[in-house]
Amino acid sequence: MKKAKKHAKKHSKKGFSLIELLIVVAIILIIAAIAIPNLLRSRIAANEASAVGSLRTLNTAEITYNTTYPTVGFTTLGSLAPATGGASVSSSAAGLIDANLASGVKSGYDFTVWTNSSSPVTAYDSAAQPVSPGVTGQRYFCSDGSGVIQQNPTAAAATAVNTCSGGSGNTPI
């Protein structure tokens, strides 16, 4: 009898059965299916908030640039960028925005600034549109010299100077 007990102890192994492992995997998949869409929506919301903040930065930079260089007026995105190689600031590299925003792409949004052709430049429009609509952002944003940031949930907010305030479907934020 004693020998049989030893033999039984020797062969009994502890661990999870296949069914238990499948149940754990199923629970993990259910939790992932619930969490991933919320994570994506949070990322889109963060990108949109960043785009609005970047447009505010562009509005401030344009006003500062126009005040600093009145003979030039307003300018495009590249001239607001920081100077490279330790050079001092100038009207072609004013250092009013960071290099990331000056590149035209930041936090899943493409940024564009248009100016009119007068000399000095008297008007500008800026726009932010998602790099991948529905993935990096849902809404399109624009602003003009008035400083009012507007949104359009379905289409590009601005395509040329002075179209932000008159664009159909645009609403102020």
The largest sheet, given as strand count, sense and whether it forms a barrel, is:
6 strands, antiparallel
Strand content: 15-25%
> What's the count of strands?
6
Question: Whole-number radius of gyration?
Answer: 28 Å
Classify the helix fraction into a percent range: 25-40%
Number of self-contained structural domains = 1
Q: What's the end-to-end separation, in Å?
A: 84 Å
Shape assignment: elongated
Order of helices and strands: HHHEEEEEE
Structural class: alpha+beta
- Number of helices, counting only DSSP H or I runs of 4 residues or more: 3
Low-confidence stretches: none
Average of pLDDT? 87
Write out the strand line-up for the largest beta sheet, numbering strands in chain order: 1-2-3-4-5-6
Written description of the protein model:
The chain is α+β, with helices and mostly antiparallel strands and 173 residues long. It has one domain. Helix content is 38%, strand content 16%. The protein is built from 3 helices and 6 strands, in the order H-H-H-E-E-E-E-E-E. It has a 6-stranded antiparallel sheet with strand order 1-2-3-4-5-6. The longest helix has 51 residues. The model has no long low-confidence stretch (mean pLDDT 87).
Give the SSE layout.
Blueprint (H helix, E strand, L loop, with lengths): L1 H10 L6 H51 L30 H4 L2 E2 L2 E7 L8 E7 L9 E5 L4 E4 L18 E2 L1
Antiparallel strand pairs: 1-2, 2-3, 3-4, 4-5, 5-6
